[in-house]
Specification:
By secondary structure, the chain is an alpha+beta fold. It has 4 helices and 5 strands, in the order H-H-E-E-H-E-H-E-E. Strand 4 and strand 5 form a beta hairpin.
Amino acid sequence: MQRRQFVAFAFAGYAAGCGRSALAQPASQMRNFMERAFEMKRRAVAEGDQPYGAVVVKDGRIVAESPSRVVTANSVDAHAEREALRLAGIALGTKDLSGCILVSSSRPCRLCQRAAFEARIARMIHGEQLTDAGPPQG
């Protein structure tokens, strides 16, 4: 089975167990979300920050995105993933991000995984290969 077909199959399988959610996105759309995360990574580098980017997806659309802001905001907590989670909470008017997917340019660190767990993120996808890290672990 080709990689693209596998990804589409895998996301369809996750959606079956989770009801209608952002998890049901076709692989091509998930690839577009990852491309946006990489655009955030390029933005971070262009602004003199660490090379990371992330987006939060809900119901087939990006609800928040962020480059790393660790250097530019002078904050060890301003990782791209945590910034995107914070902005998603603002955009959606809730800290409960159930049904959302965190899409990151690289594997989230342990603290970002913890933040995703606390926000109730459904799944984490990272890297060019669309690696499914599954639901975040507390």
